Amino acid sequence: MPADLAVIGLGHLGLPLAQAATAAGINTIGYDPDPHAATPSGADGPLSATEIRRLLAAGFRTTTDPAALGKVRTAVICAATPLGADRALDLTGIADAARALAARLRPHTTVILESTAYPGTTEEFVRPLLEEGSGLTAGRDFHLACSPGRHDPGNRTHPYRNTPKVIGGLTPACTEAAAAFYGRITDKVVRARGPREAEASKLLETNYRHINIALMNEMAVFCHDIGVDLWDVIRCAETKPFGFQAFRPGPGVGGHAAPIDPNYLSYKGRSLGYPLRMVELAQEVNGRMPRYVIQRCATLLNEHGKSARGARILLLGVTYKPDIGDQEAAPAREIASRLMELGAGLTYHDPYVPQWNVLDRPIPRADSLYEAAAAADLTVLLQPHRVYDLQGLAVKAQLLLDTRGATPTGAAHRL
Fold this sequence. Notes:
- The longest helix has 32 residues, at 195-226.
- Helices cover 38% and strands 14% of the residues.
- α9 crosses α10.
- The strands form three sheets. An eight-stranded mixed β-sheet has the order 3-2-1-4-5-6-7-8, with helices on both faces. Strands 10-9-13-14-15 form a five-stranded parallel β-sheet, sandwiched between helices. The protein has a two-stranded antiparallel ribbon with strand order 11-12.
- The chain is built from twelve helices and 15 strands.
- The protein has helices at residues 14-23, 49-57, 92-102, 121-134, 172-182, 195-226, 230-237, 261-271, 277-303, 331-341, 369-375, 390-396; strands at 3-8, 28-31, 61-63, 72-77, 110-113, 143-146, 165-169, 189-191, 312-316, 345-349, 357-358, 361-362, 378-381, 400-402, 413-414.
- The relative contact order is 0.09.
């Protein structure tokens, strides 16, 4: 049965797009060559199990058969692009998606790249694969555009519908074809001059956040060393009505974009003969934060007459964002592994993660949160899920390190 839309790649970009399109009444199929990805369960992805069930009940279909791609009007490539060994983006997923689509591409189809990519990927990498595999010409026989993913999992203020979509087409007609599609699922589309500008906008957005988080992480260390309450500093600074946007420190940066985008932008800069120094420095600063959390843990335990070796430590919230189950690049894993290497005994609690393994070892999950906090020598809040009663937790815990500044003032030690 023909579909209006094929979402190629059912990961952190593809499933939210499929959800938004299906909700808008667009007949949507999802293609992924990985059978596990093509049968999403909601266990560790961007949508919950309940959302997956509702999506399937609404008519969304998944397949591992690329033949389905030859029956759609619009195809959006949402393949994963992890970092390779040389810290450059691994575009294998995009290449596989483009080849699968090219073999079945029909004239007048609109093809859009949403995958994380460096500026030039749409024109220099995706376009040749589509043209060679199909015998068609982009911009003449089919439309080609880039619209970088902007989905923010767990964000209740800015869901898919009211988050503007940036679109850069190979030609003005390509831009308009992509805009016509996204206009059905988002309230606003923003037209870029071309694919490169659209691709670069994603880099700017991510690195703006990454660099400012790095600044706050440096300030967290500095303020702690000089005895200043950084969280009160932020509270005061954000009253300025111009020239300041509040960012906050944390135990590290996780997710599908922030830990990756700075690396490949820096890699691209070095390939041009110069480093992107701000980006590389931000990556270095943010990459140090898990080790700083370990240092604070050891210091707090020592101040209370205990050693990290043999200490009972409870980790709260092991996902990369609050109120979701996605653990992609979450700093909790590095923090846990370093504590284990120091000889600490770990337990964890996370309402979204029923099982958790670190260094190929299962970490015991606390059944009763408050009993576990009372029994632990140190409780470390890594992710402040909404279900946590932080004030009650601060009362129960013997010793609490809050890496997110989420507990009431004075209720815990803060990062």
